[in-house]
Specification:
Blueprint lengths: L6 E6 L6 E7 L2 E5 L1 E5 L10 H6 L4 E4 L1 H6 L3 H6 L3 H5 L5 E3 L3 H9 L18 E4 L4 E4 L6 E4 L1 H11 L3 E3 L11 H24 L7 E6 L5 H12 L5 E4 L7 H13 L7 E3 L5 H9 L4 E4 L1 H7 L2 E3 L12 E3 L26 H9 L4 H27 L3 H8 L3
Parallel strand pairs: 4-5, 4-14, 5-6, 10-11, 11-12, 12-13, 13-14
Antiparallel strand pairs: 1-2, 2-3, 7-8, 8-9, 15-16
Helix pairs in contact: 6-7, 7-8, 11-13, 12-13, 13-14
């Protein structure tokens, strides 16, 4: 690895707070705005790292909670860190593990705007205290305590370029008083995260993001932005409940982003719909992460631009549908991904009906390239001065 170097530079695009820039890490330079794909358990499901690179992926993330439980941070560290362990040479981010612990415990975060996904997995969060979160492993039932110190220690051992402070991710259905108490505890956890990060010499090889909480309440969001702005974080990560509707989410993100130090990169946690990306970039968001493109692919959903998406508001087609049985055209004729340059919708439909695993791989590759093409088109529009509005209807199906 070359000399360790971190930096963030940006240029305002002359269109609100929208901007483009570069985020430099020891494992490569990320052109922003950028999309971060979720290799939750150190793997993009069904896709090898070289395939992700071939589809022009800049950065991926892995999940501290899952890797803490299996295979464990010590084993990954002995293997040379996440990059070497999973064979990915580009930039990486790890989250703190907080969202997974608390969403599994509250049982309601997943039903919010951040991703409407039903699950029958039993609640595993046992207790939240000032010390940390006690929870039961979904793998073997063993009880663990994840503290800010343990989260940072785990992330330092995993070795991602960018890591995140430990926080409690409160659901939408708790009241303002709980949200405020939780946010202030997350701030104290953030201070402990910084202290542990410095103690472990993390600043030598990694950079730490602080998380903004506060739910849908402007005064709490302002208090939380004041906290991260005045502490030694490299970047900002907007987290927590963002509301009960898309419009409320956009309002919360807009207000929060407007209060953040613009000299630091701004990440939006867990959001990555096509329309959401445009609205976020308008407010100055630099990076996004979301499971949507890869999860959608595993259910036969292929991301497409208008007018290929038949229903208003849809960003994809369902290749399970019988109308694609004899369709010998690619998902998108002008898409340069491996799937579109080699296979037809008819073949992909066949693979899905035959329950062949190759279907998931091929559709995932297309969806990955789709998101990377989207971000490249947005960067080009911002750099050239054309602006987001000029390309919005090319990508968003309204």
């Amino acid at each position: 690895m070359d000399k360790i170097c971190f930096s963030f530079t940006y240029t305002l695009a002359g269109e609100g707070r929208a901007r483009f820039g570069t985020l430099t890490t020891p494992h490569g330079v990320i052109e922003t705005p950028a999309f971060i794909f979720c290799a939750t358990k150190a793997s993009i499901k069904g896709v090898a790292p070289n395939m992700m690179k071939d589809e022009e992926t800049q950065i991926i993330l892995s999940n501290t909670y899952h890797l803490f439980l299996q295979p464990g941070a010590d084993r990954v560290e002995r293997a040379g860190g996440l990059h070497k362990f999973m064979g990915w040479s580009g930039p990486m981010l790890t989250d703190s593990g907080g969202f997974q612990i608390f969403s599994l415990g509250h049982g309601s975060v997943s039903s919010e705007i951040k991703g409407k996904r039903t699950t029958h997995r039993p609640k595993t969060l046992l207790k939240i205290t000032e010390e940390g979160a006690k929870f039961r492993s979904y793998i073997d039932g063993q009880i663990h305590l994840l503290t800010p110190e343990k989260s940072i220690e785990t992330q330092v051992k995993l070795g991602a370029d960018l890591i995140v402070s430990f926080d409690e991710c409160t659901p939408f259905n708790v009241d303002k008083a709980y949200t405020a108490r939780s946010m202030r505890m997350s701030h104290r956890w953030g201070q402990r995260s910084i202290a542990e990060f410095n103690r472990l010499n993390g600043p030598e090889t990694q950079r730490l993001y602080g998380i903004i909480q506060g739910g849908v309440y402007e005064d709490l969001r302002e208090e939380s932005t004041d906290f991260v702005n005045t502490h030694a974080f490299f970047g900002h990560a907007i987290g927590g409940s963002l509301g009960a509707s898309k419009e409320q989410m956009y309002d919360v993100v807009s207000y929060t982003a407007s209060k953040l130090d613009p000299e630091r990169p701004i990440h939006l946690l867990g959001i990555g719909g096509v329309k959401d990306v445009f609205r976020g970039i308008e407010q100055g968001i630099d990076t996004f992460d979301c499971v949507h493109p890869t999860r959608l692919a595993r259910h036969g959903g292929a991301l497409v631009r208008p007018p290929h998406a038949k229903s208003k508001g849809r960003d994809h087609i369902n290749l399970n549908n019988g109308i694609y049985r004899d369709d010998v055209t690619p998902i998108e004729a002008d898409c340069p991904c491996y799937t579109c340059t080699h296979f037809t919708k008819s073949y992909l439909h066949h693979l899905l009906k035959a329950q062949e695993l190759l279907a998931h791989t091929l559709i995932t590759l297309h969806n990955v390239r789709f998101m990377n093409r989207l971000m490249a088109a947005i960067r080009s529009a911002l750099k050239s001065g054309v602006g987001l509005k000029a390309i919005y209807n090319d990508w968003v199906n309204e």
